[in-house]
Fold:
Amino acid sequence: MTYFASGHGACPGCGIPVAVRNIIDAFDGKCFVANSTGCLEIISSQYGRSAWGVPYIHSLFENPAAVAAGIESALKALGRKDEGHVLVFAGDGATADIGIGPLSGMFDRNHDVLYICLDNEAYQNTGNQQSGLTPMGCLTTTTPVGKLMPGKIRQKKDMVAIALAHKLAYVATASVAFPREVVRKAKKAVEFEGAKYLQIHSPCVTGWGITGDQSFKIAKLAFETGLYPIVEFEHGELIRVRKIKEKRPVEEYLKIQKRFRHLFTHPKGEDVIKTLQSIADENIRRYNLMGTETEV
Amino acid sequence: MMKVVRGFYSVAYSVKQCKPDVICAYPITPQTEIVERLADMYANGELGNCEYITAESEFGAASILVGASATGARSFTATSSQGLILMSEVLLSAAGMRLPIVLVNANRSLSAPLSIWNDQQDSIFMRDACIMQLYIENNQEVHDVMPIAFKVAENRRVMLPFMVCMDGYKLTHAYEPVDLLDEQMVDKFLPPYDAPVKLSVDKPLTFGCYAPPPYYTEFRVAMQNAIMGAGDIMLKEFKKWYKITGRDWGGHVVAENPDAEVAVITMGSLTGLVRDVVSEMQKEGKNVGVVKLRTFRPFPVEDIKKALKNANKIIVFERAVSFGHEGPVAIEIKSANYESGADVYSFAVGLGGRDIPRDLIREIIDKVIEGKVEPGFQFEGVKPFEEVIP
Structure:
């Protein structure tokens, strides 16, 4: 029995439906889902063909945090709070860019909502435009590579820090490369009363220029370079990190994706790669990612 | 119980008696005092199990109510001007999802230039949103209309947002004697909201699907049918309310002097002043009458035709402009009444809170009667003005 039916329209190799299905199945369907406009919404909610076996609502691109807050408030007012957990599934653009106002409001009011950002690092539903969570040096259609420009200039917005700044009880990152950990974190998160933030790294086959069979491997590599630290905070304190067994240089991650390949030939590419390596190194230092034990 | 109260309190008290489950708002002048009074009631435990939420923006407030209403909660907000426009994307989504959110709009002009004062440009902007719009003349009327708004919005044949439009400051901040509604009486008229469809784990439904071209049109047809059908449902509830309270606010249109050859159409709080001027003119033997337009959406075409059947000159006092064309109410009147061939004179007055003197109303009606002005649209009470761009 699954609460996210097959027959949805996700691309082969997309990590999103795997993460979503595992999470709502782990809650045994006892959850309410508010979804932003984006990949997940488009693949799952066509009229007459909904993949959702849980109560599901999509309103707009930028408001799922507020819609979820409304669901939670209504459940409280109507004495139905025990019916299920209130979840948001939103893309990185909906989270870090267009919906960050309502997200901050929901965090600030501390609604009992688990907000899950499915981070595929660009507006992929509309064909790979840059978002605040697009990494530095990345080729998107709005940060194209040209004689002057080597892709996106600035680095990823630190949404974990933004979530922590709201004094949330639970903030974590995860990767579709480690599906059991995704489920564990979602289940752990809902044990905390109030707003929770979980950001899941999820490769996009078309936007990243990879093949479907590579996506989980590449997601794992993102973690192993230090570019995508997998961390877990409770009440603002870092309580657990996934340890990198064998550190990989960022080039290994970059060279197998079309969105970064220009960095190896562009005149400004070398500097970008250096900066990306320093970002990865800084993540490893800051979160103490190197070591032997792996917590799952 | 009769009490002298201000408009915002009249709204807040009536909303309280409607027992909403979720109230969500964001402050904006001149609406703020409505939600402040509701916040007071919440703080004092007078709102039962209602959740009162201050959002981070009007956009957030409307979005929260989308979630709440979809979950089966009776939902209320109040806003004004820029706030309504900021809500507009969400409210359109709410209408399409058939969510019976009730809101009060304290009518205020739109930027730029910034003005906190009254006209009706804000709610007129929402004309095509599939949201019911009812305009209010005084603070007893708004008090009486709130339970009706919830009842019509939540009617299974309707299921659409309902916007009650009251002139900012002129009504919201005016003191008037209001017969405050009795709880049991409202309970009897307005049962708790029983959502015909809602988000629930027992019967999981998908709200806000996307519709490809083979389906989209049918959703829009259903919306049009619902709002067109809402007109009759409103009339029935108006009548029921009259029976219960003895207060008759009329139907969608109130033709106060149906035989008049010169009809003066108003919407909102200006009606009182116009009525006063017109009754003075009637005493002088002039064949002129007032037509109070209450319901703007759905637009009451048949009622307008009936109200104007003897008029050969129609004067419309506009509180908004459809820029690039003319007065928005006149557009509707001409469309509804085109077979009559009556001349329509449309005058934009009191924009951005400018005073509308009694003498100006009299002067305008006189010059139409005397044939000193051509039919069409014009601004009235305008001063010489040096354009910023030379």
